[in-house]
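dumping the sequnces here before i forget
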Amino acid sequence: MGEADGAQSVTAALVVIGDEVLSGRTKDKNIGHIAERLTDVGIDLREVRIVADVEDDIVAAINALRQRFTYVFTTGGIGPTHDDITADSVAKAFGVGIDVDPRARAMLLEYIAEKDLNEARLRMARIPDGASLVVNEVSRAPGFRIGNVIVMAGVPRIMQAMLEAVLPELEKGRPMLSRTILAEAKEGDIAAPLRAIAERFPAAVIGSYPFRDEADGRFKTNLVVRARDVDLLEAAGDAVAQMVDEAARG
Amino acid sequence: MGEADGAQSVTAALVVIGDEVLSGRTKDKNIGHIAERLTDVGIDLREVRIVADVEDDIVAAINALRQRFTYVFTTGGIGPTHDDITADSVAKAFGVGIDVDPRARAMLLEYIAEKDLNEARLRMARIPDGASLVVNEVSRAPGFRIGNVIVMAGVPRIMQAMLEAVLPELEKGRPMLSRTILAEAKEGDIAAPLRAIAERFPAAVIGSYPFRDEADGRFKTNLVVRARDVDLLEAAGDAVAQMVDEAARG
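..and the predicted 3d for all of it:
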């Protein structure tokens, strides 16, 4: 992925923090959304890790990934309950202190009456030293950014608002463009000419995704050509489309 | 997750191999299924990584995870096209050779006429030295198991068949049981008594999952108690249910 023109790309990893996803109780809805939005704006999502609500695991994932990618996003674990340990884990990963942040506390008070701002809710204003806040238009409790790590909520509606709030301030690369060509063929029947095209266009990324068409029960293949350069995308895409046509004519 | 009684547990990690998931084009459907099935049978899924179709990334993920967990499952990248590099990557991770396996070739011939078994399709019979095969009742091309690593297809229907084929031969622990209690309350209003219960039952795992109820637009909370011991589950679950009742009565 992006190997061919990786040097100029802006990259990201995502850490999903959540026992509930690993146990299968909750089906994650954030990975697909974040993957799409980052691709749209020209940030290449290169790796996702789903880890448990365990401090050592969160710290290890963040420290491994923040060295390797331009940005690391996290989702989950920033609420008011005992199992919300993301902010403390991020502070530990960076080796900095953490305390109630007056700016975050003021944001909470826009939504929560002062009498309801109990000790548990005040935990949502605990922000690692040196972090900037990521606003949350839905329920006010902010995310934050420290270094290249961006910490967001796990509730999809809130996460999406935070992502839109932070995207404008991030560095972007040339967006990866893509073109999908449907082949009414099993991938094994077109694999050889497809490989030849992939070798002819080494700077494009060509993927082959077989699926079973529920309408007629047959296995078909989506061929996806990706490139940052529109001329390259067109040339490689046309080559694939022509190959698919020829294969259909037998 | 499972920290309290982790010593007796059987653990797993999952590596999802797929550019198409990282680009957002395809929404993964395998993680949730595998998480549920492993939980059912008593294998704790502890980490998931989604990596690109890049050999170095696949090798690094497999080698990092196979040291740490009882089993590592992979999905994706075992088809006939140029971008299917999982089998070669796994062979490299284990430092073993790889070639067309006569058993796997025979399986392919149950489904594919010999004249259609072209060079591309024969790639699906390339199996690392020393691996055992995982049968595929859907389209025959097998997965495989080498050491504690189990390699499966990415197409959900085929992956599911392979998972069911391999599960009977795996070691299992005591299944993690769970009980979900719905609180018609924001989690910030019940966080303090919930923390007290979590501290009273350190061997249970108690999670709090806020969500917005689309029916009435209100934020509510699912409280999930998990334990391997049924008596512990009942005691901790009853404590949470009683707390939720008391909170509702104000």
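Residues 12 and 146 of chain A are 15 Å apart (CA to CA).
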